[in-house]
Amino acid sequence: MNPFDKIKAARSSFPEVDLTRGRSIAYSRSTTCRIMELIDGNGQGNVHGGTIMRMVDEAAGVVAMKHSQRPCVTARVDRFDFLAPAYIGNMVSVNCALNYVGRTSMEVGVEVIAEDLITGELRHIASSSIIYVALNEQGKPTPVPPLAPADQEEAERIEQASIRRQHMQKLDEELAQWRAQNLAKKIP
Ligand SMILES: CC(C)(COP(=O)(O)OP(=O)(O)OC[C@H]1O[C@@H](n2cnc3c(N)ncnc32)[C@H](O)[C@@H]1OP(=O)(O)O)[C@@H](O)C(=O)NCCC(=O)NCCS
Fold first, then answer.
1. Measured from the CA of 106, which atom of ligand 1 is nearest?
2. 3, 105, 115, 133: which has the fewest C-beta neighbours closer than 10 Å?
3. Phi, psi angles (nearest 5°) of residue 156
């Protein structure tokens, strides 16, 4: 079987997921690490931002897939803050955990750490927050299990993400409304 048929066959039917049972943040939390090599560099001799972005998207996608037990697509990179450079030879660790779960979407919070394994120096080099959507066998958005906070701290993390999400949706709506009102006027 060629690889494309193999992928298609594997995506033709998924196991049932109990949507009434919440899953914890710990259940899907993950860390991915890799040593930065020459191929990861940019013109300044540091690590290319795109290398970090790809690692982040892959690592955070794993969290969404583990929580939902479904293939997931990246719907939005809500934030991506580069705080400091990473260097060739550093070990870059991408720590990811769910911030929030909607009906079919999941927001993953990401912290990226660069470590000099010789000196032991640790640097927080980037933060991000990415929204994924779980898909069913037809490639359409599908419901995911709720997120069950383990303690007060996790409940507050979820609540804050929920507020950010509401603001983001409101801003999207306001901008769409503005475009509909203002850009329509320019059409003769
Ligand atoms: C993401 C995608 C599946 C959403 O499809 P859609 O028909 O707009 O889905 P819906 O309107 O039903 O929205 C589904 C969920 O996604 C959320 N969503 C969709 N687009 C979003 C965006 N740009 N930002 C944030 N959330 C988004 C909705 O709020 C909704 O969340 P909820 O179910 O938790 O309330 C579709 O836009 C898509 O396939 N995009 C391309 C994805 C891709 O190729 N990514 C890169 C490679 S992985």
1. 34
2. 3
3. -70, -35
Atom 44, ligand 1: residue with shortest CA distance: 73
Residue nearest to atom 29 of ligand 1 (CA): 105
What is the pTM for the complete model shown? 0.93
Provide the residue type at 2 as one letter: N
Q: Does the C-beta of 76 come closer than 6 Å to ligand 1?
A: yes
59, containing H or E segment: helix 49-68
Query: Is the separation of the CB atoms in 133 and 141 below 8 Å?
Result: yes
| Domains, the chain, with CATH or none | 18-149 (3.10.129.10)
SS3 content of the chain, % helix, strand, coil (to 5): 35, 30, 30
CA of 141 to the centre of ligand 1 (A): 7
Question: Is the CB of residue 131 below 6 angstroms from any atom belonging to ligand 1?
Answer: yes
Each residue's pLDDT expressed in tens, for the chain with a length of 188 residues: 888 888 878 778 899 999 999 999 999 999 999 999 999 999 999 999 999 999 999 999 999 999 999 999 999 998 999 999 999 999 999 999 999 999 999 999 999 999 999 999 999 999 999 999 999 999 999 999 999 999 999 999 999 999 999 999 999 999 999 999 998 776 66
